[in-house]
Design a protein that fits this description.
There is one protein chain. With 485 residues, the chain is α+β, with helices and mostly antiparallel strands. It has 18 helices and 15 strands. It is 39% helix and 16% strand. Helix 3 packs across helix 5 (72-86) and helix 9 runs antiparallel to helix 13 (230-246). The longest helix has 18 residues, at 134-151. It is globular, with a radius of gyration of 26 Å.
């Protein structure tokens, strides 16, 4: 009960640390943290350099007067709390949703702090707290701007009404100008000016950064994006930073699948060597987040149909259209359905095998036209690849495979499993906010509403709840989560 009360007080006090009452609120937050931290009594004496390093980590370096008023024990407690956040130790992702199987390795933060201080390396330890990825650092930097916007009241709402376009004037256009100016898409200008070319260009830029058609017109979708509040955008940034903390260290060689973007990228030596569109699970069959290693490539794979897909989809088609199964290469095997390799096979002609905690895989598909769609949440959970042969060649090049030998092996129609010379890390992530080199952000759709779920979990004072049922994928029956990389 005591811990729950303290957590509730944290929620009430923390927003005050960002405003004019920061000084008193910082001390109160420090005292609350101190009371909730069982190791506080062992807090060491800190020298000036160590205190300055903690100020910087806490984001208080611009208000040294506030930070100097805190005792060593208060600073130590706040540092521990900050470190728990930065190291992704606040929550266990799979406790919030079993589809989030990217649990960071548990760390004994208090003990690490004590050892680092005792060994004279506290400053280096503090410097190593943030995720080392450049994208994470960029998001942290931009977060401060959105926090300031939110603290200053956010931006105006664009009222419901007709489509806004060039040549129009009035209050709605003035609100649009103010809205875009606050987020940095437009220089401050005459609020009475009509909808001109400059405003249309700024609006088109906004649309590009929100995955909208950049037509420079305020229709329903653009109005909705404009009216997402600054507070909600800040929360979305925080959710993405938290997911970055779950997978802190990205190998230089890896295949990364971003479910929210429905895109995949092959990184070799830290450089993107191949990128492609992918098709991921629909909202009822969500593609899970996990890490593993690509182990082998299967050419001309058969498809062992999961029972749920057979019962709910294929057998009803057969009943409505007798002969459907035979015409598409399905046969009965051990009481289940299996689709023979071939052009009609749901897995296509190339499949990538790896230890899968959910029975989902990466594979080709005969439905090539679906990659042209902007919304590609269409599968039963597996990840369908736009460029499976190119990926296979990139992974098999060291073994002498060429496009000709690969095409020839596929043309035989025979199933062949090829072990990779070196297993490649596979990381499946979910990123709905990206920081751009110019300091702007790109906001993506949240197809599974996972941002909102994570935001609620991070704000909840008690232990995480709300487990979600695991969906069966198109590749095989789901399995319990297991360790990743």
């Amino acid at each position: 009960m005591r811990v729950q009360i303290l957590r509730k007080l944290f929620q009430l006090v923390r927003p005050l640390t960002k405003g004019r009452r920061r000084r008193g609120a910082c001390r109160l937050l420090g005292l609350l943290t101190l009371a909730a931290t069982p190791t506080w009594a062992a807090a060491p004496a800190l020298n000036t350099i160590e205190r300055a390093a903690i100020y910087g980590a806490l984001g208080a370096s611009d208000e040294i007067g506030d930070a100097r008023s805190l005792a060593d024990a208060e600073l130590w407690a706040l540092l521990e709390r900050h470190a728990v956040f930065e190291l992704g130790q606040r929550i266990r992702p799979s406790d919030i949703d079993p589809m989030w199987a990217t649990n960071p390795s548990p760390r004994k933060v208090a003990r690490e702090m004590e050892q680092a201080h005792a060994q004279g390396r506290l400053i280096d330890w503090i410097a190593g707290l943030p995720v080392p990825a450049a994208q994470y650092r960029a998001l942290v930097s931009v977060r401060g701007r959105y926090r300031t916007i939110a603290e200053q009241g956010g931006w105006p709402t664009i009222q419901a009404g007709p489509v806004l376009r060039k040549g129009m004037g009035g209050t709605a256009i003035a609100e649009l100008r103010a809205r875009l100016a606050i987020e940095g898409y437009l220089d401050v200008s005459d609020p009475a000016a009509p909808f001109d070319d400059a405003l249309a260009a700024a609006l088109a830029n906004f649309q590009r950064h929100h995955n909208l058609v950049p037509d420079g017109v305020v229709g329903e979708a653009t109005r909705h994006a404009l009216n997402v509040s600054a507070e909600d955008r800040l929360s979305q940034i925080e959710a993405n930073l938290e997911r970055w903390r779950w997978v802190r260290d990205l190998p230089a060689d890896r295949l990364e699948v971003d479910v929210a973007a429905a895109e995949a990228s092959l990184h070799l030596g830290g450089v993107v060597a191949l990128s492609m569109r992918v098709i991921v699970g629909d909202p009822k069959h969500r593609t899970p987040l996990f890490t593993t290693r690509l182990a082998s490539i299967v050419l001309n794979p058969p498809w062992n149909v999961p029972t749920s897909i057979a019962d709910k989809e294929l057998l009803p088609r057969e009943a409505a259209n007798p002969g459907y199964l035979a015409a598409n290469g399905f046969t009965r095997v051990n009481g289940g359905l299996r689709q023979a390799p071939g052009a009609k096979n749901a897995l296509g002609q190339v499949k990538f095998d790896f230890p899968s905690p959910f029975g989902v895989y990466l594979h080709d598909t005969p439905a090539r036209s679906l990659f042209a769609q902007s919304r590609r949440t269409l599968s039963h959970g597996c990840v369908r690849l736009e460029k499976p042969r190119e990926l296979a060649l990139a992974l098999l090049a060291s073994r002498g495979w060429t496009r000709e030998t690969l095409d020839s092996a596929i043309t035989t129609g025979e199933t062949q499993s090829i072990r990779l010379p070196v297993e490649l890390p596979l990381i499946i992530v979910y990123r709905t906010v990206l920081a751009n080199p110019n300091g702007s952000l790109t906001f993506r759709r949240d197809p599974y509403d996972w941002d909102a779920k994570l935001i609620r979990a991070l704000a909840a004072p008690g232990p995480p709840v709300a487990m979600m049922a695991r969906a069966e994928s198109e590749c095989s029956v789901s399995k319990p989560p297991q360790a990743g990389l």
